[in-house]
Amino acid sequence: MAAHVRRHVGALRNPRSLGTRLVLILTMVGAGGAIAITLLLAAVITPSFGKLERRSVEAHVDRTHAALAEYANKVESAVKDYGDWNDSYDYMARPTAAFERESFSPLAMVNLDVNAMAYVANDRRIVIARWIDEAQHDQPAMRARLVRMIAGLNLPRLLRGRSATNFYARMGGVVAAVGVAKVRRSDGTGDPRGFVLMAREISSRQLAALLQLDATIDLTPARGEVVQQSRAWMTITVPIDGAGGAPVASARFAVPRDVSMLGQRMLLLAVAGSVLLLLVVLMMLRRMIERLVLTPLARVERHMERVRASGSLSLLEDDGRRDEIGSLGLSFNAMLAQLKDLREQIEAQSFALGRSESAVAVMHNVRNALSPISTVISHGIGRAAPVDQAMLARAAEELGKADVPATRREKLAAFVGAGVAAMETARREQVEQLGIGRDALGHVLDIIGQQQAAAHERPQLSACDMTDVIAQNATIARYSGKTHIAFSYPAEPCPVLANRVILSQVVGNLFANAAEAIAAAGRNGGRITVGCARIDDRIEVRISDDGEGFDPAVGATLFQRGYSTRAHKSGGLGLHWCANSMTAMEGALRLESDGRGTGATAVLTLRAPAATTLDAVA
Predict the structure, then answer these.
(1) Domains by residue range for the chain, with CATH
(2) In Å, what is the CA distance from 414 to each residue of 395, 398, 421?
(3) Is the overall model pTM greater than 0.85, yes or no?
């Protein structure tokens, strides 16, 4: 042990020692690798999770706006029924107590799920107004606030020619969704005789139930969405807009910063794991280098020292190794055996061999150094110079002369300015091309993240219009390649139950495959036809092309991971991913073809949305 320590101390004292150099190189490589890994992981993980957190905030804000809008739309639907009602139309002409007892009773208002109702004449006179609480008792104070709120409204301007509308209003300490409709006949005819108004209180408890969060109603209006962040929580404030668009209150809720904290933990774990792995690898490399290289070389060195000091040509003891070090020992022994008779020849051969190996190493290093330079030159060699440098230099030289006429000087200055501008434009184009490459590297990282994350859970399904998805992807596919593609698809909506983002990716992938099949058929153009049909509770979408088609015997093989019908492609993940995505959306995907040269059809099967969700598609 003491000898081992003394040997390392001696090596460290001798900076020209091979062992010291290797230790220093490994240490610098390890330190540089740890720093590079940390910076790389921080540059990739932190922005990605920050973007996911921002998207999460946007999703919470959008969901809050959607929940508030849905809450107010229900009130608008109820008030619109009362507005387009012959009994309401007759009541505004001749108010009767019987109508009021029947339509303004607490039971009727509870059935409508509203807290307040009022009829207002065209001259802004309130014919009747009533407010009830959960116990179905009249509340004079709330009725008075309701009357004041109605008096402050310009109902014709608020409706803007529509038959009904909705908004939020604050009445004292109560925030309510208000719906207003014109009073007309049931068929919508007749001059409006006034307005009917309904209000439904929204409390913190109701808002929390809508959002499935611990949400509260803040009576302090917020100017725009506000996000307050702490280490572990985000407090999001969303304004509740009133009749004029100005906020009357705010919806406030707190959500944990799970994404950000997960990103921090992942970054720490990744950095710690990478650094630990790097340290282990460096330690193992150091031990292996010492055992397999430095120790045998030291043994050879000691023997050579004895040969030099004594002049004895005794052979090096064979240690049984048959690798490069063992070969070195055998060669050394052979050299010693022949040194006495062939010393000059061996020296010449050794010199020639060393020179050859050195040349090979130098050429290898030169080739490796020229390889990236060749790549850079290949990319830039096709770009013509934006301006003739010689002409620009001559123009600048002539411009510096004092005897140049003013007219000539103006032309020369304009030429030099245009040349400099052209060079600056070329530089900006190069920067823009590099930026395009950088941005392409970043979109990929987002969809993954959206897909890794999506790989561990089923995507959320909602009603969406298949026709709209097809139209968007057809526009992209029509101009994305050199082959001219003619598309044909239904014009009427085709509602399906799916995840819109994933469905769009599947359709885009199938359009791209169809375009490749058309190009592979040797034509400059082709046609893609899409049809939708409902079969029981399923929607069947057929995407047909007139491309090269495929042998029906390999139809099932097309969905295998890594399989591709293109000899020049090494992927084969597109259809595999599409099939898995369709299965995740409770659907299916299959391919049909009658053989080579007959085209192919991709058949997508998805669930049809329930009747109650079709309005969302419309």
Answers:
(1) 2-51+261-310 (no CATH), 68-257 (3.30.450.20), 391-451 (no CATH), 462-617 (3.30.565.10)
(2) 10, 13, 10
(3) no
